Structure formats: C-alpha cells, structure tokens
Amino acid sequence: MSESRRIDCTKCRHYYITWDPNFPRGCRSFGFKTSAMPSLAVQSSSGKPCMSFEAKPGKTRP
C-alpha cells in the first residue's frame, strides 16, 4: 500500500474561509467549520481520507 498524501483543502471546490475567528476553515460538502484543515478533521474523526475532494475548476487564460 502506498503512502497516502495529505489532501490540500485549499484546492477543493467545497473549501471556504469563514468569518468565525474560532473556526476559520469550512467544508460545504460535509457542512462544518473547523480550526484545522477540514481534511484533517475528516481523517481524525472517520479514520479515512476525505472522499469529497473535488478540484476547483481551472482558470482559463487568453
């Protein structure tokens, strides 16, 4: 089994920054806010890597 890589939430379409200073990071897919990266919270609570990661659409440049 290969080493699993840490999921970069900042590249996920479900990730967002909240206005809550105690819980500044959020996940729209799972519907929660956290002080840590959401993928780490999912890994910690479920024991499995986040399965909702969807890459943000790429920006097209002329």
UniProtKB/TrEMBL annotation:
It comes from Cohnella cellulosilytica. This is Uracil-DNA glycosylase. Residues 42-62 are annotated as: Disordered.
